[in-house]
Structure formats: structure tokens, C-alpha cells
Design a protein that fits this description.
about 180 residues; alpha/beta; Glutaredoxin; 7 strands
């Protein structure tokens, strides 16, 4: 009997070790969906801005987009927002746009944060974190650089964005366009 019990435990352990991680990959993304890949298309979305107007990623086709997921309670997010704002001010006339997606909060905290931080780029609300889920966001902040053709070119995690880093990414993404 001990031999049979060991075989059952071993079979169960193999199942858990091989299958459960695969099952977990689909959690929050829907069965069969995959996280977006570098070089692959950015998942489409439409979210409301702070004034309640719908904004779609497709509205910015032909531009380089910095898509950043953030929350008011996230200290690394707060640290990089002034850097993102500085880059936005410098490069918005060079086919560059920032879309800041607030992760799961109501509009009042996001509005207050935006006002106090003097943020002028579009801030969008993702109250159910459905768009964040489509981008496989599991920690904040996380940002994606999307090229003019709607392809994800870079992913940056953990509050490491700087104005200089954004400028360097724009040079890589926009090719021959010179950015001072």
C-alpha cells in the first residue's frame, strides 16, 4: 500500500509542478490570452480620461506612445511622474504622447494627484484594471513604449524612467529623428 500512495503523491506533485503554473498564466488575462510581447501589437483599449471623455490608443496611431500604468499610492510612480512630465513637455511636438493609466482608483484621487503634480498629459482611468490585465501588469509602475505603427518596442518596470531615458528611447524608436 505504501508504494501505491507514493505513486499517487508523485503523480500529483508532477501535475502541480507542470500544470498549475500554466493555469496561473491565464489568471486575470482570460483563458487563451497572452501577455503582450515586445515587437507585437499593443492591445487596443478605450478608457475615460479624468473629465469622462473616451480616449483610445488608436487615437494616437502614427505617434510614439509612452503608456504608463500607475497609482496615487505608489511611491515609485510618484517619483517618476515629474520625469515623465519633463519629457512630455520637451518632446510632445515630436510625435510623442504620454498616456498615464491609473490602476484601479476612482477619479478623485487621480485628479488630485494630477493637479498637485502639474501633469499635463492625458490621464486615463482603469477602475477595474481590465486594461492593466491585458498588458499583464502585476506591479507598479510599468511602462510601455509603443511605436508609430502600434507595436510594443520596450517595457520598463519599477520606477526607473527618467527624462534622459525617455529621450534615449525616443531616439531608438524614431530612428533618424534628432532629439536634442
Amino acid at each position: 500500500m505504501k508504494y501505491k500512495t507514493r505513486r499517487i503523491v508523485l503523480a500529483f506533485s508532477v501535475f502541480c509542478g507542470l500544470c498549475l503554473p500554466l493555469i496561473g498564466m491565464g489568471v486575470g488575462m482570460g483563458m487563451g490570452s497572452r501577455p503582450p510581447l515586445i515587437g507585437g501589437p499593443a492591445p487596443a483599449f478605450t478608457l475615460n480620461d479624468l473629465e469622462g471623455h473616451p480616449v483610445s490608443l488608436s487615437d494616437y496611431h502614427g505617434k510614439t506612445v509612452l503608456l504608463t500604468f500607475w497609482a496615487t499610492w505608489c511611491k515609485p510612480c510618484a517619483k517618476e511622474m515629474p520625469e515623465i512630465q519633463a519629457a512630455y513637455e520637451k518632446y510632445e511636438d515630436r510625435n510623442f504622447v504620454v498616456l498615464a493609466i491609473n490602476f484601479g482608483e476612482k477619479s478623485d484621487p487621480a485628479k488630485a494627484f494630477t493637479h498637485h503634480g502639474h501633469l499635463t498629459f492625458p490621464v486615463l482611468l482603469d477602475p477595474g484594471a481590465k486594461v492593466a490585465s491585458r498588458y499583464s501588469v502585476v506591479s507598479l509602475p510599468v511602462s510601455f513604449f509603443i511605436d508609430a505603427n502600434g507595436l510594443i518596442r520596450e517595457r520598463v518596470v519599477g520606477g526607473t524612467l527618467t527624462e534622459t531615458g525617455i529621450r534615449e528611447a525616443l531616439v531608438r524608436l524614431q530612428g533618424k529623428v534628432k532629439i536634442p
